[in-house]
Design goal:
By secondary structure, the chain is an alpha/beta fold. The protein folds into 2 domains: 275 residues, Aldolase class I (TIM Barrel, Alpha-Beta Barrel), CATH 3.20.20.70; 78 residues. It contains 16 helices and 14 strands. Helix 7 packs parallel to helix 8, helix 8 runs parallel beside helix 9 and helix 15 packs across helix 16. The radius of gyration is 26 Å and the shape is elongated. The N and C termini lie far apart (54 Å).
């Protein structure tokens, strides 16, 4: 049970920065909502990950697991044919997917020309609950703030007519604006307000090149929220080209966003996207409900990693091989049950804490004080297991443990059980 006077600490789960609940911090996020939902783009953005695409079965496997973990919506892949995407939607229905599915598109250009209604109709016929049309124009129009060719009034007119047409199909409509976060904020507010006024259920803001910062994002989204009003949802997609996507996602929520676009392990175009497992854990730790079943996150990450055939750095948050490990008991302050002084307890996201013995301890870089090179922690560990080792026996243990670590090329450490086996073997053999 969370102490209402100490919301930053949930014993056994997490311990975070209490300053987030100070008056100054609260005043900086007046539009933050109590709950945020995730629209997952793993199977959509995964198609943009060079050299790593899914097949039919793994697409369904990912979607099935996303449905089970509790995401709010799932974006369908848009780089396949209409017939294949339609069949994929049907297959999702057959296997019992309940999460609303999103058709990314159609692309809409101003002024409206040709058979634009027919193009919208083809997307409606895919059978998804949500349409996410993309309003497009040239980068020159964005850079010049619509002073060299296409006019803002032409864009507003195209938005109004096309969004109204889409809503007649009784689907949820959440339009994108191309280059949204590279546009002047007043222009973005004008266009997004036009979407909301035309009846859009939400607006989709995109940092499509991953070049925003948390402060800029919070200000930008705050202005968009004011422009579209409180009843229109605000979606946000951040790419991770500069490594700040998850921080930007939190800033977007603080600015008033209600939906965060994310993918499992951050897979996506170029530097990837907001990592679902990172953002979901972070939001819950700071008091924002997400509907995500945190204890299923690691299994989901493992499946997606294998399905796409990607290698993760061992320090990757939540999913990395070393993320749940510490040499000795590290930052646990002696609590070998991982009481959460490391931030978030691994058990919360479906993992287990692993205390290990590695080079820092075995080769003299983890000392009891600056005055000794003696690995006191190992002596205490052995004594805690009820073993009495002579100095000769202890040195034998060190020698064998160091050799095991040095030659274990897959992972240069020992689990406590492995180290204990070495201890038992060395001490037993030396006894008369």
């Amino acid at each position: 049970m969370t102490d209402p006077n100490r919301p930053w600490h949930q014993p056994g789960k997490w311990l975070v920065n209490s300053a987030y609940w100070d008056a100054e911090a609260k005043a900086a996020r007046p539009q933050l909502r109590k709950s945020i939902r995730f629209i997952d783009c793993t199977v959509s953005e995964g198609d943009d990950c060079v050299g790593h695409q899914l097949n039919w079965n793994t697409r369904l496997g990912v979607i099935e697991r996303l449905d089970a973990v509790g995401v709010g919506e799932i974006t369908m892949p848009s780089h396949i044919t209409f017939s294949e995407e339609r069949d994929l939607v049907k297959a999702c229905r057959r296997i019992g997917i309940r999460t609303p599915l999103v058709a990314k598109g159609p692309g809409v250009r101003a002024p409206l020309q040709g058979d634009w209604k027919g193009y919208i109709d083809r997307h409606v016929d895919l059978g998804t609950e949500v349409l996410s049309p993309i309003f497009k124009w040239s980068y020159e129009d964005t850079a010049s703030d619509f002073t060299r060719g296409l006019s803002k009034s032409a864009v507003v007119d195209a938005i109004a007519e096309s969004v109204a047409y889409m809503k007649r199909h009784k689907v949820r409509v959440v339009p994108w604006m191309e280059d949204s976060m590279r546009s002047p904020i007043d222009t973005a507010c004008l266009f997004f307000k036009a979407m909301a006024d035309a009846g859009a259920d939400g607006v989709y803001v995109v940092d499509s090149r991953g070049n925003s910062t948390p402060l800029a994002t919070r200000v930008f989204i705050g202005r968009i929220r004011q422009a579209v009003g409180d009843t229109c949802d605000v979606y946000i997609q951040h790419h991770n080209d500069l490594g700040v996507a998850t921080a930007n996602a939190m800033a977007a929520a603080e600015g008033g966003a209600s939906w965060i676009d994310a993918s499992v392990i951050g897979i996506g175009d170029r530097g990837g996207c907001v990592a679902l497992e990172e953002a979901a854990a972070l939001f819950e730790m700071y008091g924002i409900d997400t509907g995500i079943r945190l204890d299923r996150l690691y299994e989901l990450c493992r499946y997606v990693q294998q399905a796409y055939g990607v290698q993760l750095p061992p320090w990757k948050p939540i999913a990395g091989a070393n993320w749940n490990k510490e040499e000795g008991v590290g930052h646990l302050g002696g609590a070998d049950h991982a009481e959460a002084t490391i931030g978030i307890a691994p058990q919360v996201v479906g993992r287990e804490f692993e205390a290990v013995v590695g080079g820092k301890i075995l080769f003299g870089r983890e000392r009891s004080s600056a005055r000794t090179d003696d690995p006191v922690f190992l002596r205490e560990l052995i004594a805690g297991w009820g073993m009495e080792a002579s100095e000769e026996q202890f040195q034998t243990v060190l020698l064998r443990a160091r050799a095991a670590v040095a030659t274990n090329y897959g992972r240069h450490y020992l689990t406590f059980d492995e180290f204990r086996s070495i201890c038992e073997g060395a001490i037993a053999r030396s006894e008369p």
